[in-house]
Specification:
It is a single chain. The chain has one domain. The chain is about 25% helix and about 20% strand. It contains one helix and three strands; from the N terminus they run E-E-E-H. Strands 1-2-3 form a three-stranded antiparallel beta sheet. The radius of gyration is 12 Å and the shape is globular. The protein starts with 10 loop residues before the first strand and ends in a 6-residue tail after the last helix.
Length: about 70
C-alpha cells in the first residue's frame, strides 16, 4: 500500500488496485487511525490531483489494474 500524506489535510490518502480513493485520519501524533479508513465520496480539485498522483504511483509500482 502506498500512502500520500499532504500537509494540512489531517489524513493520508491511498487507492485500491482499481483506483478507488480512500482516506485515513491521522491523530495528533500523526499516527494513522486505520479503524476510521473510509472512501472519499466527493473531492475538491486538490484532492483530484492527489488521486491522479496516486494512480501514477500505483502504475509505476505495478499495483494498478483498472482498464
Amino acid at each position: 500500500m502506498l500512502l500520500y500524506i499532504p500537509e494540512g489535510h489531517g489524513c493520508a490518502y491511498s487507492i485500491d488496485t482499481e483506483g478507488e480513493l480512500f482516506y485515513t485520519p491521522l491523530n495528533t501524533n500523526n499516527e494513522l487511525k486505520l479503524e476510521e479508513t473510509d472512501f472519499v465520496d466527493d473531492y475538491e480539485e486538490e484532492v483530484k490531483e492527489i488521486h491522479e498522483q496516486l494512480i501514477e504511483m500505483y502504475k509505476i509500482a505495478g499495483l494498478y489494474f483498472k482498464n
